[in-house]
Amino acid sequence: MVTIADVARHAGVAPSTVSYVLTGKRSISPQTRTKVRESIRLLGYHPHAGARALATSRANVVALVLPLRPGVHLPVVMRFVTAAVTTARRHDMDVLLVTADQGAQGLRRVAGSAQVDGFLVMDVELDDDRVPLLRQMAQPSVLIGRPAAVKGLTCVDLDFESAGARCVDHLADLGHRYIGFLGAPSVVYQRNTGYAQRTMAGFGAAAMRRGIASTALPAEDDYESVLASVRSLLRTQPAMTALVVHNEAALGWVAGSLRALGRRVPDDVAVVAICPDELAEQMQLTSVQLPAEELGRQAMELLVARLNGHPTAPLTLLPPKLAGRASTAPRLRRA
Amino acid sequence: MVTIADVARHAGVAPSTVSYVLTGKRSISPQTRTKVRESIRLLGYHPHAGARALATSRANVVALVLPLRPGVHLPVVMRFVTAAVTTARRHDMDVLLVTADQGAQGLRRVAGSAQVDGFLVMDVELDDDRVPLLRQMAQPSVLIGRPAAVKGLTCVDLDFESAGARCVDHLADLGHRYIGFLGAPSVVYQRNTGYAQRTMAGFGAAAMRRGIASTALPAEDDYESVLASVRSLLRTQPAMTALVVHNEAALGWVAGSLRALGRRVPDDVAVVAICPDELAEQMQLTSVQLPAEELGRQAMELLVARLNGHPTAPLTLLPPKLAGRASTAPRLRRA
DNA sequence: TAAAGTTGTCGAAACGCTTCAATTCGGAGG
DNA sequence: CCTCCGAATTGAAGCGTTTCGACAACTTTA
After folding, report:
1. Is the CB of B23 under 7 A from strand C?
2. Which residues of A touch B123 (CB under 8 A)?
3. N or C: which end of chain A has fewer CB within 10 A?
């Protein structure tokens, strides 16, 4: 391994000088700087990460805590991940993968050994057992998602309540009066997952506010279940003319199910999805965007800010944006 | 931070003794051992990862190089990831996430700074520009996938050629004589991706061998394209009674497309998928399993073996396994 | 009983980097 | 001409581990 001493010798300067060239923490004459840079290039020198971490007590690594349990939609997770990694790299940080199944235990281990400078935790539940630990840890953390109490934390999330409401408003404005809601798989609700519950709540409240009849049902992620759920919704509420879907995995089967039950989209039943934009685009669905990339990016930016000692708001909510597409149309008034 | 010196002081021994208790590299009397262990527990001591890496020149971290480009099916990728991470943890290693878009550049950086002890590279192309670099790097690497030349490497892959052939054999045994092949999105083939091409090759060769007429077409991952591809296949080969699908994203729409074109599964057209077992199970498709977990696990095991100085075979091919389900049936002989 | 192991423990030297205090060296100010 | 100052550079002391050689205290063996 080529060390800083090798570079120093090659350039005819002291190791400390090389270090200062690298970090820019002291002024160095242009001649020396170029000379050192040249030696670095020639020798192919890379600072030893461990040594640096030891000397600076900064690892330049953040932990990304990934959910890998039933009900989470993996492609969406990957969107978060790429955005987070890209953003981290922009700040010269690397990303250590920690799976949620390692639990609080895993966080403690990684934090204790100073392997990482901070944590980005995804898929936080309303009442998450990792939250107390995160609060008291030396390293800062940012949560994607929103536990019951955000005091002392830094959380980023889509405003799912508004998202649910936004769907209702859009449909209500188009004249729909009976709306169904197709939610995430039931395990997600059982797990007390904030985003799912809040979307439902926002949806329900908005419906009440606008005097609209609403029915909600979870949906598992296979065709049969989706079909069953849709059939059930239609049976419960025969006048239903619109459907809000908050379930990426079910999305592909909704149109088919409706068709199988003799309903056309959007003429008989309008559909609004809450999902990443690309998915909606691909299926030509009116949708409230789930800005996974934006969330991942913002979360990482906030984490970096905290690492640099800047204070951050406990809760950042991104406003939902609705994109109109072919799956919604004004309600047809029949004779 | 609580250091090894703190523990030593607390236990009334030398720091080196604590180290030996931790690593077990020298015999320690039971009394001392328990005394030290107790102090460690009490003080909540965790060895500093950087310091350890510096002293041992081992980071106990492996890099996982993830593909995040169009055409890769993210849920499958995540399966690899979880298996790899779980296996790594079993060997007391952590996983650093490197996205493929960081390219050879990123590999060099991570390797040069001694952040990781080895590399697990996913989604390797037939002619991958990272391969030469991997060959000459100090750290060992294991590839999931199979470049053109495997000499000097360690590769793990499903035997896609046999997988393609296996589908043909299954269908031929059932009496089918005209078989279609629905492949990955065309970008995947353009990129010279080994697994896609090899599956096709195996499929084609087996069809020739068994005197079966075959037609192949790529499929993009939206309903319209799948429908178009299927229609095109049926037009090209009107007598087609079976379809092999090697495209996870298209899978959900194949049955629908066939139905839309007036064909029933499996009576008119039998379908065999090449995909993870759970997906096939869920859709009740006869399939050749894509053992993502198994591949991820094996790859990591091989990497650990190499890290411990054990030699490994350049290529490990997992044999394909076919699981019969409701989507295939003997060909109906019509009058 | 002396020599030759064993076993358990310790002290000190690495590992490769950063950073503080000290030093040198021109040039500006008196 | 001497002093003082700022800019550029250096030497050495850490950062928290591991590990090697040394050593004391026993236990065998001769």
Report:
1. no
2. none
3. C
